[in-house]
Specification:
The complex is a heterodimer of chains A (about 260) and B (about 200).
Chain A: H1 4-9, H2 15-25, H3 35-41, H4 46-52, H5 59-80, E1 121-124, H6 134-138, E2 143-150, E3 156-165, H7 166-172, E4 181-186, E5 191-195, H8 196-199, E6 205-210, E7 213-214, E8 224-226, E9 239-245
Parallel strand pairs in A: 1-9
Antiparallel strand pairs in A: 2-3, 3-6, 4-5, 4-9, 6-7, 6-8
Chain B: H1 11-36, H2 55-83, H3 85-90, H4 95-106, H5 120-144, H6 150-155, H7 158-186, H8 189-196
Helix pairs in contact in B: 1-2, 5-7
The chains are: A alpha+beta (about 260), B mainly alpha (about 200).
Chain lengths: ~260, ~200
């Protein structure tokens, strides 16, 4: 049943629609012989192509268009972001136990970082580039919060994180607060980056504890960046280096297609 | 007197109808793939009727097509309201006529003599799909921007509530699409009207 509607779209005379279909269809006209090949391998567009009766040979150009729209959505989300609006907080009784583990690898591959040799690197557009021992971060004023962690996969869980206000930390190291991005490199080879307004949000915490205890390895020892305004993949664990930059740093998942802004 | 060649659906309406149809197909199929990432209702939707290939691809389709449905859908409602078409095509509603029309429909005897006039079942179905689309858009906003819209967030029972609202509003829309297409199959000239306008 559903298959019928769009097939008829193609014979509809509306110029707007035709243009939209043509755009998807772009470059497909000259490549008829490739059609069968395409249908065999098109995981991404197969169903839509068949629905619309179009042959979407140039999968790469569609992916480019979608990525471009995703970057446009980053801009829109930047405008929508109110730096003073707070994410909801919850009573401790609502904490999800056990809090789910999630990473791009399994729980048996969690990296163990040695506290004694650990030094946090701070580089890029900052005045003070010295390295930080964990004890120095613990000596700074600590805040904590019970907030909802929302995963891009669609599940959510409530947890309690404590640590240093990231805005305070950035000011402390003399970061250029007009820079566009803050990037993170992690001990588990993960990397990501965020916008400066989110970095300075009052609920953005350089988390050293989970539920009142030192952050366990599975939740990102020695530290993770906890942002209740962002999806899980934007919250890096096992942070080794922080850098401030105006050059778009991307991220592990973002480079594969997850939206870069990735948050509320 | 209405001539046989009178315009039943003006051009703007047909354009918006088909754009909305395209957007809904993309949103629904990519949405199914997004749902499958957690499948929080305990069942998965067959991957071969989903769009995007993987979660990241599905999200890209979803967050591209949402602009088409959002902008085009709001324009559709605005033009319907401003032109008086909404009032004069879909109102008044009458429970008694609805019952009579529903019985007639179930007996296969619903009159379609005048395509410019919607019977009570049609009125209700089309009004329902407009409201359901608004609900989809609003619950989608809560899922996308749960911090930025605290009032909507509260109204839809928080993030987890909004996820369910979004899913079941989608299911209701899918049910509408099925019924809609069955009706089009039973009265095929309505398709011609929506393509050619007359």
């Amino acid at each position: 049943m559903i298959i019928k509607t769009p097939t008829r779209l193609a014979i509809d005379g509306d110029a707007v629609l035709k243009e939209a279909v043509n755009r998807f269809n772009h470059a497909s006209q000259s490549a008829q012989p490739a059609r069968r090949d395409f249908l065999r391998r098109s995981l991404t567009l197969g169903s839509l192509a068949m629905l619309t009766g179009c042959t979407l040979v140039d999968e790469a150009s569609v992916e480019t268009a979608l990525s471009r729209i995703s970057r446009m959505n980053d801009e829109v989300q930047g405008w929508l972001f109110d730096p003073n609006r707070l994410a909801p907080t919850y009573p401790e009784s609502m904490i999800t136990r056990p809090f789910p583990f999630n990473a791009y690898y399994g729980e048996d591959e969690v990296r163990e970082v040695e506290e004694s040799s650990y030094r946090l690197e701070v580089t890029g557009l900052v005045a003070d580039k010295r390295k930080w021992a964990l004890s120095e971060l613990r000596a700074m004023p600590q805040i904590d919060q019970v907030t909802r962690h929302i995963c891009v996969e669609g599940w959510s869980a409530i947890g309690k994180w404590g640590g240093v206000s990231f805005a305070r930390f950035l000011r402390h190291v003399g970061a250029d607060l007009s820079a566009k991005y803050v990037g993170f490199k992690c001990a588990d080879d993960y990397f990501t980056s965020i916008d400066m307004p989110t970095a300075l949000h009052p609920q953005t915490v350089l988390a050293l504890t989970y539920d009142g205890q030192a952050l366990p390895p599975k939740y990102g020892f020695p530290m993770k960046l906890r942002m209740p305004t962002k999806l899980g993949y934007k919250n890096p664990k096992h942070i080794q280096a922080i850098f401030v930059t105006n050059t778009y740093p991307g991220g592990y998942w973002e480079d594969q297609g997850y939206n870069w802004f990735g948050g509320s | 007197m209405k001539s046989r060649n009178a315009v039943i659906h003006p051009g703007w309406l047909r354009t918006m109808h088909w754009l909305n149809a395209l957007a809904v197909i993309v949103l629904m199929m990519s949405g199914w793939r997004i749902y499958n990432a957690t499948a929080f209702l305990g069942f998965a939707i067959p991957q071969n009727i989903t769009l995007g290939g993987w979660l990241g691809g599905a999200l890209q389709w979803h967050f591209a097509a949402m602009w088409v449905l959002g902008v085009n859908g709001c324009l559709y409602l605005a033009v319907n309201l401003a032109s008086g078409r909404l009032r004069h095509k879909f109102f008044p509603l009458s429970a008694r006529t609805l019952w009579a029309d529903l019985l007639a429909a179930l007996k296969g005897r619903l009159a379609h003599a005048d395509p410019q006039h919607y019977n009570m079942v049609q009125r209700l179905a089309y009004l329902f799909v407009m409201l359901d689309s608004v609900l989809l858009l609003v619950s989608g906003l809560v899922l996308w921007k749960s911090v930025q819209f605290p009032l909507l967030h509260e109204l839809l029972w928080g993030y987890e509530g909004a996820r369910r609202v979004h899913f079941f509003a989608m299911a209701a829309l899918a049910a509408f699409v099925v019924v809609h297409l069955v009706m089009v199959a039973l009265v095929p000239r309505t398709l011609i009207y929506m393509v050619r306008g007359r």
